[in-house]
Amino acid sequence: MAAVKKTATAKKAVATKKAAATKKAAATKKAAAANKAAPAEKAAPAKRAAARPAKPESRTALVRRARRINRELAEVYPYAHPELDFENPFQLLVATVLSAQTTDLRVNQTTPALFAKYPTPEDLAAANPEEVEEILRPCGFFRAKTRSVIGLSKALTEQFGGEVPGRLEDLVKLPGVGRKTAFVVLGNAFGRPGITVDTHFQRLVRRWKWTEQTDPDKIEAEIGALFPKSDWTDLSHHVIWHGRRICHARRPACGACPIAPLCPAYGEGETDPEKAKKLLKYEKGGFPGQRLKPPQAYLDAGGKAAPPLGAG
Ligand code: SF4
Q1: Which stretches make up the HhH-GPD domain (predicted)?
Q2: How far does residue 106's CA lie from ligand 1's centre (Å)?
């Protein structure tokens, strides 16, 4: 009886060993196939990422890599622009405040009615809050946002003669306006360099090991030090565009990412090129963008305008 039991145990051990060997062989075959399928440049970062912790990147190498990523992104998104529709600094300021906790698309679908009815800070300052709430309802948090934009408009009217100020120190004094909003307005409505540290920017610069910081102000300072000031606004667009289209929070499309060879986080997302391609968004995935009125360069590059509210 003992001998039978021993034989059974031995047989089981052999079977387990065989199964493990088969599994290992299949995994190796799969990895080899993936490497074969991926372009050589896509396979490289994994090797480099593995090597990187052993030898910390020097400051000079970091600056070079960061600037190279920005240059490559400039080629990928030559038409990058702020994704909020606006025609003047007031509209951009209000749209940026409204964009909290919602998409730029939803803001762009909402603001045409708002600015048609209240074209100036004076008009919005004197508005009936209930009527503004009705217009802003699609943006979510519409009561709080109504209070914000009316308060903001009152401050512009009372303290700045109805004009949006073009200085950071004045902008951040306005109710509901922090450094992020101020830099969006300065960079895009006044042509003054600014870094926009939004959620995409924070995620990507940490994936790229440009910074370990988590506080937006510290991120802004550290990233600002890697680039000349004149690059700041375009850099912000490139990073945010990449975050929205390819390097998503949950499933980055690593296998379709043009800067994979420079990225220490390559492999955090989908590496299979075909599967990764399906994760691409907006014009990279063949879909409309966020602006109802995008710049001509975007349309010339094959980008499509977003549909108005209720149309899609
Ligand atoms: S998609 Fe992947 S490879 Fe590209 S930047 Fe993001 S984490 Fe890096």
Answers
A1: 98-245
A2: 27
